[in-house]
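Attaching the record inline, Q. Sequence:
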Amino acid sequence: MRKLVFLVIALIFLLVSCSMFEKPIAEQDPKDLPDVMAFQDKFTRGFMTSTEEVEDGYYLFESKTGGYTMWYPEDARMNDMYYKRNKDHFEAIQFGGDHDKVTGRRYYVRAIYNKLNDVKNHELYLELLSGTSGYDGEFEKEEKDDRTHYYARRENIGETKSFYGVLALVVEDARNQALEYKYTIICDEPKNSCDFDLDEVERQVKIMMESVEFNE
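Structure, as predicted:
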């Protein structure tokens, strides 16, 4: 009986010791990490919290502000040139990949997190999101628990290149936090050559926005 107790205690000690000395993901050898861009790119993997998928093709991203987490596509690389942060109340990120889940085309995402500003003024945030995106239409509004979601589609059709995408904003008034999200798909073909299922693209963006969890 004593031997059994000793073995159990030794095993617990070994497991705790291993977890204590495990290197953060950002410091681990890429060879020991998942063979996807989210971990193979040095800058990007600094935002990943676990090597376990939260959903097929997605890993958990955590903001450097500590303000929120969300699902992150495995093929996307974070662009460090566009990264900006101000302490724990503002962060702007941009990431993208070569294969959008719905269309298989190149895509990129621009996301901006705010905490200190008065996020209860939703209209101001929507005006800023519209203005920086060249959009002048209405937003679809959805109330979910203690959060408000806004969505809109946009198209910019050119002669040789076109852009299609979804604008999104999620606001949690109680915690005074907001995240705006611009999802853009690139069509490198002549005018009106791309016929994308924007209903499905918007559905995917909604899944991403609903994965957002604001921290205290």
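The radius of gyration is 20 Å. Residues 2-21 form the longest helix (20 residues).

More tomorrow.
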